[in-house]
Write a structure and sequence with these properties.
Layout lengths: L1 H56 L8 H25 L1 E3 L6 E3 L11 E3 L2 E3 L1
Antiparallel strand pairs: 1-2, 3-4
């Protein structure tokens, strides 16, 4: 009987170890997910802070970041040019009042009712 008692204790002990290890793995996985979420949050805050700083100082010619501001402005202009090209190819225009994509040549926006003139909002 002594053998079976020791075997039983060993099995119970091993089961507890496996159970604890599974809990540890689960807790580590949850913590890693939480860490990633916080890192993503910090990255968003950095981007928002950088965008706010850019908007506030982009017209300053005599600052350390002037070259970066210029490069960002060039890139944003190129993005707008490419978006306009996509719309031209699609035969569409954007309502500047609400942002809905409309067929090119539409007289009024079907969403907000704003008068459109070649995709340009008129008041």
């Amino acid at each position: 009987m002594d053998f079976f008692d020791k075997l039983g204790e060993s099995l119970v002990s091993a089961g507890k170890d496996v159970s604890q290890k599974a809990k540890d793995v689960s807790e580590i996985a949850k913590l890693k997910i939480d860490i990633k979420a916080k890192e993503d949050y910090v990255d968003r805050q950095y981007r928002e802070l950088g965008a706010a700083y850019y908007e506030k100082h982009r017209n300053e010619e005599e600052c350390e970041e002037a070259e970066q501001f210029f490069l960002i402005s060039e890139a944003l202009d190129e993005i707008e040019r490419m978006k306009a090209e996509v719309l031209r190819i699609q035969g569409a225009a954007i309502c500047p009042n609400c942002g809905l994509k409309m067929p090119e040549g539409a007289a009024f926006c079907s969403s907000c009712g704003a008068k459109m003139n070649d995709g340009i909002y008129e008041e």
